[in-house]
Amino acid sequence: MAPLAEAIAAAAALVARVAAGRSLSAALERAGDGSEPTARAAVADLCYGTLRRYGRSQALVAALSSRPGSADPLVEALLWCAFYALESGRYADYTVVDQAARACGLLQRAGAKGYVNALLRNFLRSRASIEARLGADAAARYWHPGWWIERLRAAYPADWESVLAAGNTHPPMCLRVNARRSDAETYSARLAAEGMDARRIGAAALLLERPVPVDRLPGFAAGEVSVQDAGAQRSAALLDLRAGQRVLDACAAPGGKSAHILESADVALTALDIDPARCADVERNLARLGLAAEVRAADCSRPETWWDEIAFDRILADVPCTASGIARRHPDSKWLRRASDAATFAMRQARILDALWRTLSPGGKLLYVTCSVFPEENGAVIDAFAARTPGARRAPLADGGAAQWLPGPEHDGFFFSLLEKPA
């Protein structure tokens, strides 16, 4: 049984589930149990590559098929995966065509072999003319849903195309050196000794020239380093942490920002997350790094269920959002998100802000963070909160940087706003 055919079949089954509304990460985790690492890597590459090309593969099927929209969803997902395999440059064209046809049999779709074979060969013969036809289709050209494209175009007239382009790339791999164990300069030298090039882009941040498996990172198991995007690392620095403070990380899972807070200052940290399973992730991450916090499964928007009435000096509110700033890490979000989602999240974000403000001490600071690039979840939420909350002051960001970081070669897209409560 040909390995590529197996990978295409497995990836098609997963992609079809995403197209039906399911999360890719959960599907990959279940599918990967017991399979060989090489096979898992091939399936993951096909899934991520296919899903990054939102709109393009669908447009190709529509342009090439004599019966667009009527194909079996599983066969259509197989074709999307095959198009990615053809365009990835990893395989010879004839190999992809042959293996995609074989994958039909593995998916109990043997009757579709001729259709798949003919459609892929037609694409290879007519590629130039098809590309010209797809140029006017925004979703096919930019690999994002039309509503997403228009929202970015309106919000960032000068940058929308670069934001979309960044969302289609492989994400950078950034490390955070545990300041309690080492420093960026020393750890960079250790990486170099292992043949891994990295450059410093922050106080504890090192950007790897090439991603590597975490088990190749020296000292990872011993807690000397973590993988965390440079944008996410900005949070701890903006909190204005001081020794002895009482700090709340209100939406803590999987624990990267909690860990960074504890690596940065001797504070008493409470880490909340609404999902008990994700709280376990926080505890595991802190244990690996030799750090300790009070980790609780609780809904941060309902302080009456978890708060002891002792106010916090600092609060990190890394609130749930559309995650539109990290779409390249979660390409299934392009398929799963809807145009109305930003407004729905904004209402939830407002509830969280109002609730957490009650738990903040006079003179305390709350850092509002999203990994979104949609203004409805960012500046608009803060403007509305400031307008309805007497005394709430927007404090300047300590690094002097912009509130909105757009995704680029060094970091993902994040929004930050620091709110100060009157003393």
Walkthrough of the structure:
- By secondary structure, the chain is α/β, with parallel strands linked by helices.
- The protein folds into three domains: 3-143, N-utilizing Substance Protein B Homolog, Chain A; 173-228, Alpha-Beta Plaits; 230-420, Rossmann fold (3-Layer(aba) Sandwich), CATH 3.40.50.
- Helix content is 47%, strand content 14%.
- The chain is built from 18 helices and twelve strands.
- Strands 5, 6, 7, 8, 9, 10, 11 and 12 form an eight-stranded mixed β-sheet that branches.
- A hairpin with a 4-residue loop joins strand 2 and strand 3 (205-208).
- Helix 1 (3-19) packs across helix 6, helix 4 packs across helix 5 and helix 10 (146-155) packs across helix 11.
Strand percent estimate: 5-15%
Which percent bin holds the helix content?
40-55%
Task: Write down the domain tally.
Answer: 3
Span from first to last CA?
70 Å
Helical segment count: 18
Sheet bearing the most strands, described? 8 strands, mixed
CATH class call of the largest domain: Alpha Beta
Structural class of the helix and strand makeup?
Answer: alpha/beta
CATH topology heading of the largest domain: Rossmann fold
Shape: globular
N to C succession of SSEs: HHHHHHHHHHHEHEEEHEHEHEEHHEHEEE
- Give the radius of gyration: 23 Å
Low-confidence stretches: none
- The CATH homologous superfamily of the largest domain is termed Vaccinia Virus protein VP39
What is the CATH architecture annotation of the largest domain?
3-Layer(aba) Sandwich
Instruction: Compute the average pLDDT.
Output: 94
How many β-strand runs?
Answer: 12
